[in-house]
Amino acid sequence: MNLSILTKIPLFRSVYETELERFFAELKITPTCFRKGEILAMQDEPVNRLIILLTGSVKAEMTDASGRVVKVEDIEAPSPLAILFLFGRENRFPVQAVAREDVTAVVIPRQSVLRMLTMNEVILKNYLDISADFATRLSRKLNLMSFHTIRQKVAVYLLDLSKKQTSDTVLLDRPKSALAAYFGVARPSLEREITRMQQEGLVVAEKRKIMIKNRPELIRTVQL
Q1: What pLDDT tens digit does each residue of the chain (224 aa) get?
Q2: Separation between Cα atoms, residue 69 and residue 59, nearest integer Å
Q3: Angle at CA 80, nearest 5°, toward 25 and 95?
Q4: What DSSP line would sit under the chain, residue for residue?
Q5: pLDDT per residue as tens digits for the range 50-97
Q6: Model-level pTM?
Q7: Domains delineated in the chain
């Protein structure tokens, strides 16, 4: 198993390959292969193991109350699946994970993950950092969803990016299709609103680069 792949994911950041090799040998963890179309995890299935993609990709799907299957996202290796749902009283997979192609993964039982966390402080800190970062992103998302109009969502998002990038010219951190999904709106609706904001002199948009031209008005939009 190529353990250097695992050092690229946040959970094992700053952990030596020799240390990972010792853990995996002691816990008897070996790679598992999944064929294209094979299900790695079912929606609402108890999360009793940590699945880490080494090669390939999976599609995350969710079945709504009407029985309609909705694609949520594609997850590329190297990446863990539902890492923050591993512990808790109601820890179930939020989505179904299906292999988009042939996939190689390591499947670590929850008890073995717990043991690994107690064996290495770096891995434990990484897990806590991942949890804290997720909580921060969730808080931001909930704050964003509290705004009703697309313009308000765009304004608060641009102001937040401007603060992070310390510039009035910001580079969107995701494609507009993904940004529209993040806002919970259709991409054409998002494109139309950005075009209107540009026509009104609030911003200048060029693909994923957007310049804030009227910051006071953006702030006022958020405060409405």
Answers
A1: 677 888 889 999 999 888 888 888 888 888 999 999 999 999 999 999 999 999 999 999 888 767 777 777 889 999 999 898 999 888 999 899 999 999 999 999 999 999 999 989 999 999 999 998 888 877 777 777 777 899 999 998 899 899 888 899 999 988 888 888 888 888 899 999 999 999 999 999 998 899 999 999 999 988 87
A2: 12
A3: 130
A4: --TTTGGGSGGGTT--HHHHHHHHHHTT--EEEE-TT-EEE-TT-B--EEEEEEESEEEEEEE-TTS-EEEEEEEESSEEESGGGSSSTT-B-SSEEEESS-EEEEEEEHHHHHHHHHH-HHHHHHHHHHHHHHHHHHHHHHHHHT--SHHHHHHHHHHHHHHHHTSSEEE-SS-HHHHHHHHTS-HHHHHHHHHHHHHTTSEEEETTEEEES-HHHHHHHHH-
A5: 999 999 999 998 887 677 777 778 899 999 998 989 998 889 998 999
A6: 0.68
A7: 6-137 (2.60.120.10), 147-223 (1.10.10.10)
The two three-digit tokens of residue 131, written as one number: 């949890």
What residues form DSSP beta bridges with 170? 210
In the numeric block, the tokens 């139309």 are attached to 192
Q: What are phi and psi of 81, to 5 degrees?
A: -105, 130
The structure tokens 């179309």 sit at 37
Contact 117, 111 (CB under 8 A): no
Pick left, alpha or beta for residue 56 (phi over 0 → left; psi -120 to 50 → alpha; otherwise beta): left
Cis peptide before 216 (omega within 30 of 0): no
